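Please fill in the sequence for the structure shown.

STRUCTURE ENCODING:
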C-alpha cells in the first residue's frame, strides 16, 4: 500500500553537522581500533614464525627467514589495502546511517520552527520509509490531531 506523502530526498548529507561528524568519528575510530588489533595479531603471528626459525637455529640468511619476510610484506600490503577499504566503507556507511537518524529529527524540528513562525500551518508530517524514529512522526501527528479538535 503506497503512502500519500511527498518524498523528502535531501541533497545535503550533513543535516546535523555536529551529531553526524561525531557519529562518523566514533564509527571510523572503532573501525581503526579493530583494524589495529587485527594488525597486532598479524604481527604477533609472524613473530612466532621468526622465533621458531631462531629456536631451530636457522642461519639469518636462511631461505626460511626470506620466505617469512616475503609473506609478512605481502600480508602488510593486503592489510593496508583492506584497512583503507574498511575505513572508506565505515565512513560512507556511517554517513548514510547517521543521515537516517538526523534526517527525521531535522524534519520535525524544521516543521515545528516553521509552524511556530507562521510560515506554514499545523499539519501532519511524514518521514522517508527507511528513516529511523517513525514513531516520532506518529506521536507528532497524534498531537496535531488532538490540537485540531
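FILLED IN BY: designer on duty
SEQUENCE:
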Amino acid at each position: 500500500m503506497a503512502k500519500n506523502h511527498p518524498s523528502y530526498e535531501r541533497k545535503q548529507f550533513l543535516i546535523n553537522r555536529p551529531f553526524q561528524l561525531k557519529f562518523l568519528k566514533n564509527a571510523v575510530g572503532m573501525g581503526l581500533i579493530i583494524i589495529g588489533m587485527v594488525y597486532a595479531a598479524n604481527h604477533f603471528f609472524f613473530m612466532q614464525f621468526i622465533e621458531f626459525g631462531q629456536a631451530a637455529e636457522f642461519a639469518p640468511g636462511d631461505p626460511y627467514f626470506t620466505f617469512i619476510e616475503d609473506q609478512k610484506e605481502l600480508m602488510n600490503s593486503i592489510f593496508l589495502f583492506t584497512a583503507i577499504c574498511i575505513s572508506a566503507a565505515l565512513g560512507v556507511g556511517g554517513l548514510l546511517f547517521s543521515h537516517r537518524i538526523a534526517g527525521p529529527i531535522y524534519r520535525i524540528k524544521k516543521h515545528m520552527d516553521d509552524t511556530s513562525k507562521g510560515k506554514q500551518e499545523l499539519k501532519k508530517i511524514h518521514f522517508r520509509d527507511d528513516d529511523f524514529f517513525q514513531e516520532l512522526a506518529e506521536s507528532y501527528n497524534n498531537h496535531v490531531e488532538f490540537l485540531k479538535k
